[in-house]
Amino acid sequence: MTEKNVTDEENSAVEEPERAAEPDSLPPGSETEESSESEDPSPDQASADQAERSMRAAHRPGSAVSGPYGRPVHPMLVTIPIGAFVATLAFDIASVAVEGRAYGRPAVWLSLIGIAFGLLASVFGLLDYRRLTKGTRAHAVATRHLILMDTVLVCFIIGFILRRADPDQYLNGTPTPALVLSVIGVAILLIGGWLGGKLSYSYGSRVADESDQIEAHTLSAPSAD
Prior knowledge:
By secondary structure, this protein is mainly alpha-helical. It has helices at 3-21, 30-39, 43-59, 74-77, 79-97, 100-129, 137-165, 169-172, 176-201, 210-216.
């Protein structure tokens, strides 16, 4: 074997390990796909981010009319129609069981007060309702709350018309159909009110963020109210 052939074989033996050590060439676009996969959030993370955005949106007022942040108007107003409707039922029962004139007249005007403030409260409730994200559990509960409370208003509006249409309303007490509607209305009111409380206390609709709430529970925090 000549010296030249030996030299060529040695050179080829050195080149082959070097080629073997080189990484295989990647197909076009594979680096971009790998980096994009690492940058894209996982489905669980995307769902958590969406829930966080929806919750924080529900904490904020839909407009300045619906009350400032952490101080919504709707929960304050609903106490008036709730009290008025419950009192209406109590006076309806008393007008039939005790004395018509003494209790029938207040029942008429208590129902009217409940209707007026119920309609007003529903406007502010609708502003808060629009802040909830469709498809969420909070939105579904709020929808049922809205339907039930509107049904209560319908019951007492019809009841008020029946009271005013009866010429002897103050003598014989509340007409039976109006009394039945009061019972149905208050029963639905209890369910709708429970759902409204769930929206606030379980789902945090129109409440302040936890980062703001925790300041009020700090011993050294000064009062800002």
